[in-house]
Write a structure and sequence with these properties.
This protein is an alpha+beta fold and about 700 residues long. About 15% of the residues lie in helices and about 30% in strands. The chain is globular, with a radius of gyration of 25 Å. About 50% of the residues are buried.
């Protein structure tokens, strides 16, 4: 028995080996040696910060505390094991820090699946909650996700779509808090830690509930036939505000005719459950519930005011309204988008990032701003050609945030509350070749229908007169590529690879096509896009023609690459315009919009047949007969965002008609590859494939 235990311990200590394969192209590994930092968090007490670092597949949690904020690594991640660290959460006083270990992707069909196992470990990984008390050694406290920590340091979390609770020292056995018929999410503690608000999702509606202990029934807040979400407590713990959407009857809705999806803000008593609306958005398209990433940012500020994000003027902006009702005040007027919103500990101001500023090209950057919760007048906390995001306000007049430039990867930075005199707390790998990176140039070009499209142009420094050209198309599609490193892990990789391709002599144009964010609501919600007409593809073609117009580009040697929705657009380009696009690399793209569409289970069918036909006609596979250019297909078969059958179906169709293709499949990998080894192998194959076709 002792021998078996020692043997198992030895296996546990082994690092995950790199899967054998062809040697990486020269210099690629150095370009992928960047460090990504994310999940920057601070408690209400404002005396410490924590974040996650990812370097060559190794993930670790770091902590820095006042007064000197010297960084200290809490975890000891040494393997490229593909187990994510995410959902960092502090207790209000900062003593308890919790996070989730284990990767899972949330969407309508992947919820409930086990943790991903991209390293193909022989033991099934678990989704686990870990905690550290006062910066002490981390301990596993439970299996679950979405930790929320009370004022007393107890950790509520989600397991199997239900609410559980456990202590932070790892000594307690987790207990189920209560039974709910729905799927529980958005756990939110009252300020004193005695009550827990939550969302109960029940298919075609959702409720806000409040749990107050085992001897009290759940209090439901003004239940209705609507979708309720985003619960937030009043500072005195007596009321909860939340958002409500009445929804549109499925049988009456049609993506061919955009319909408003208005929302209202409600305030309810947690004692009685009685509530009332305090504000209703306009019943217009711009008055719809915001669909920019991270949603509403509903918060309860000082002087009994609620703040939230909406798009009523066509841009994702911050508003403020009295909790008793009235007209909202627009806090952040202007043609820019607000993201990464936090409230200061005194609840009197909001900090946020936005693609605004006085430097040319700032619409494709992020800078930090501060605005009072009750009146317009944002003050810039950063500016210039760098990028800054995820502000975390601290006590003693300090501010933490993440900063990057076109050359320097993201780093946690500490500054004064005014954003000045910032100094990095985290460091990049000294081997990372910052000096080899080019500064992308902001460019614009016009689509055939007259829409102005933005992009970033990466031009080689090799001095050659003519280069092959590449179009890069992002995924999402509600994403925006920037004039520097991204705040998203997936797109830090894309940026690094585009920089590497430029170093190899490619002129790369990253196209921010319609459906993306950063250029207003109308840009994000165009007519006849996606499965209803594919109108965004014309932006890709316009980008290719722009590349061809450049004297440094050989217009006969154009390729395209992208992932997810970018994979879809890569396939569109090769299927519809093989004469223009000579080669492509398609990472986990959608190829037939009609797959998985189910007819309404009722007598009324509305225009289902028409929509199915249009969905297929808007897909790459509808133009398969004209697809002649070679393609490299790359996907993990545990993809929980784009079903693997999309690549299986396309590969078999291409084979049947004799179109040249290669494939690189990663067993057990998910959509956003979790292992460095996966990215390295995929990127190596991408570079070799493009070189073979565009550099004969």
């Amino acid at each position: 028995m002792m021998k078996r235990a020692l043997l198992l311990a030895g296996f546990a200590a082994l690092s995950v080996p790199r899967v054998a394969g062809a040697e990486a192209p020269s210099g690629l590994e150095s370009f992928l040696s960047y460090t990504f930092v994310g999940e920057l968090s601070a408690p209400e007490a404002g005396d410490r910060i924590a974040w996650m670092e990812l370097h060559k597949g190794r993930r670790n949690i770091w902590l820095a505390r006042a007064p000197d904020y010297a960084p200290r690594r809490l975890t000891d991640g040494t393997a490229d094991d593909g187990q994510d660290l995410s959902e960092l959460a502090f207790s209000p006083d900062g003593r308890v820090l919790a996070w989730v270990r284990g990767a899972v992707e949330h969407n309508s069909w992947a919820n409930g699946l086990p943790a991903a196992n991209p390293a193909s470990a022989v033991t099934q990984p678990k989704i686990e909650i870990w905690a550290s008390i006062d910066g002490g050694a981390p301990v596993k406290v439970a299996e679950g996700e979405e930790p929320a920590i009370s004022a007393s340091g107890r950790i509520a979390f989600i397991r199997d779509n239900q609410a559980w609770i456990v202590g932070a020292d790892g000594k307690d056995k987790p207990e189920k808090l209560f039974y709910d018929r729905g799927k529980v999410s958005e756990l939110t503690w009252s300020p004193d830690g005695t009550r827990l608000a939550f969302v109960s999702r029940r298919g075609d509606h959702s409720f806000i509930g409040v749990y107050a202990g085992a001897d009290h029934p759940i209090i439901w807040l003004a239940p209705a036939t609507a979708f309720d979400d985003s619960p937030v407590w009043s500072p005195d713990g007596r009321r909860v505000a939340f958002a409500r959407r009445t929804g549109i009857a499925d049988i009456l809705a049609s993506p061919l005719t955009p319909m408003p999806n208005p929302f209202s803000l409600w305030v309810a008593s947690v004692e009685t459950g009685e509530g009332a609306p305090i504000w209703q958005s306009p019943r217009t398209l711009r008055g719809s519930y915001p669909t920019v990433p991270d949603g509403l940012f509903l918060m309860w500020g000082a002087n009994d005011r609620l703040t939230f994000r909406a798009e009523m003027d066509g841009w994702a902006h911050l508003y403020s309204v009295a909790a008793s009702g009235g007209e909202p005040v627009l806090l952040t007027p202007g043609e820019f988008m607000v993201e990464h919103v936090v409230m200061t500990p005194d609840r009197r101001a909001l900090l946020y990032s936005a693609n605004a500023g006085g430097t040319a090209g700032d619409i494709d950057r992020r800078h930090l701003f501060r605005v009072a919760i009750d009146r317009p007048g944002p003050a810039a906390l950063s500016s210039g050609t760098g990028l800054e995001w995820l502000p975390a306000p601290l006590k003693d007049g300090k501010l933490a945030y993440i900063a990057a430039t076109a050359a320097v990867p993201p780093r946690v930075t500490l500054s004064g509350a005014d954003g000045r005199d910032g100094r990095p707390l985290s460091q990049s790998d000294p081997a990372f070749p910052s000096n080899a990176l080019v500064t992308p140039k902001p460019v614009t070009f016009t689509a055939p229908d007259g829409l102005l499209v933005h992009g970033q142009l990466f031009t080689p420094r090799d001095g050659r007169a003519r280069h092959p050209g590449l179009i890069f198309v992002h995924g999402g599609p509600p994403r925006q590529m920037l004039l520097g490193w991204s705040y998203m892990d997936y797109y830090t990789h894309s940026y690094a690879l585009n920089q590497y391709l430029a170093s190899r002599g490619y002129v790369v144009l990253s196209v921010n096509y319609r459906l993306g964010i950063g250029y207003g609501r109308d840009f994000q919600h165009p007519l006849r896009a996606g499965a209803t007409g594919n109108s965004e593809y014309q932006d890709v073609v316009a980008g290719a023609h722009y590349l061809q117009s450049l004297p440094e580009v050989d217009g006969r040697r154009l390729g395209i690459w992208g992932g997810s929705y970018g994979g879809l657009l890569t396939a569109q380009a090769l299927a519809r315009d093989s004469d223009l696009f000579k080669v492509g690399v398609d990472f986990h793209g959608v190829h037939d919009w009609s797959i998985g569409r189910n007819a309404p289970q009722r007598y009324e069918q509305n225009n289902f047949a028409e929509l199915s036909r249009l969905a297929f006609e808007s897909s790459p596979e509808a133009a398969l007969r004209t697809w002649r250019s070679p393609v490299l297909l790359i996907q993990g078969d545990d993809d929980r965002n784009v079903r693997f059958e999309q690549t299986v179906d396309l590969a078999r169709r291409l084979a049947a008609q004799g179109t040249p293709f290669e494939e690189l499949i990663f067993p057990n990998e998910i959509h956003g590859f979790l292992r460095y080894d996966t990215w390295l192998r995929a990127d190596s194959a991408t570079v070799r494939f493009l070189d073979a076709k565009l550099k004969p």
